[in-house]
Design brief:
CATH architecture: 3-Layer(aba) Sandwich
Helix content: 25-40%
Strand order of the largest sheet: 2-1-5-4-3-8-9
Distance between the termini: 23 Å
Shape: globular
Radius of gyration: 14 Å
CATH topology: Glutaredoxin
Number of strands: 9
Number of helices: 5
CATH class: Alpha Beta
Length: 154
Amino acid sequence: MLQVQQTAPAFNTVNQDDQPISLVDYKDKQYVVLYFYPKDDTPGCTIEANQFTELASEFADNDTVILGVSKDSCDSHRRFIDKFGLKLDLLADTNGELCNSYDVWQEKEKNGEKKMGIVRSTFIIDKSGKLVDVEYNVAAEGHALRVLEKIKQL
């Protein structure tokens, strides 16, 4: 698993509009909140995305961009954004490369059944590209506000 003060793994992928997004796009400009979630339009993921959206202007005021990541397609991301009026970019990691590089693709157990999936996780990356906060196994409710409080301390 990744640790604080490590260099954040670089990435090049596409957002919901099929536009290329790369970590270097934000270097020396903004903090990045990179949050991984299991699936578009599911209860916990909707709570988390809506709460990040509610706080989007405060994150922007603190020089921070929010990027959500799942293995869903660009089409799925667009439908999710449109349905809830989300104000953030969602990255389509359909091949799982980004999930693997951030160690969030892990074995999970639910109702006694084990399977691989995305562990809800959040990474705060500073303007130099270093990880300043690493959180695996995040609870969706109230998470966005806790992340904002951490950003305000930077």
